[in-house]
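From the shared-data thread, chain only:
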Amino acid sequence: MIGNITIFDCTFREAGYQTGWFFDKDFCIDYYKFAQAAGIDYLELGFFHNKEADPNRGYFRYCSLCNDEIKDIFLSTKNTVKLSAMRDIQRPLSDLLPKKETVIDAVRILTRSSETDFKILEKHINEIKKLGYEVFVNFTSSGHNTMERNKEFAKFAVAHEIPIIYFADTESVFTPEYVRHTIELCREEGVEAGIHLHDKNGTAEMLLDVALHYGCKYTDITMMGLGGKWHDGNLATEYFLRKYNYNPGYEQTRLKTMLIQNLIKYNKSTAAVL
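Structure, as tokens:
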């Protein structure tokens, strides 16, 4: 936790679109140590995708199927920073392993706001909880939602004991008013709203400040603001750490260099769209 804010660092998952979810082991270990020192709560590695439907990607695209490889990277280093991965329930999936067999602590369910089927979402929530994971829900493309729709999501979360739901500004269309009203209505319903800000329009930093002003305590960040299927960027780790007067100094610079080297090394595996 940085300040009183719970942080999901999504660098691996988001920059994975540029590297095909291939990353060097030494970078993964060093980035985990950096997150530990900075006070980051979760590192989100990637997805639980199906290799047949989505072949030739790195370990973090297949967080169940590549369980042994991921354990080999993190098991000896893992401390208080939790590891998470995203379960995109509108895409072909692999089966989940019980939490006790993995180093993954939390699962964020990804559901596109306009495609959300509450019965299917409920099924996945129950399955993931039974396997022992923390569960969060991330509603993508949520900038097009009405407040009534967001209220439905909040009520659903309360009914299924999901304490935090995330709203992703996939198309960078959030406004300050949207952010404020979403945070306030969720709190009125008894659930906290987290935000995942993209930065196509250069609004992520401003919208974070709005969200914090209205009491948001949950946000996502990525190093250098990298990521996105369309190279659309995210809220930058550097901005967030600077805001809370945390100066990682040379270590952050070193990790940026390592990340850039990975982007170059694995560029031919990119899943991003130009």
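The longest strand covers residues 82-88.
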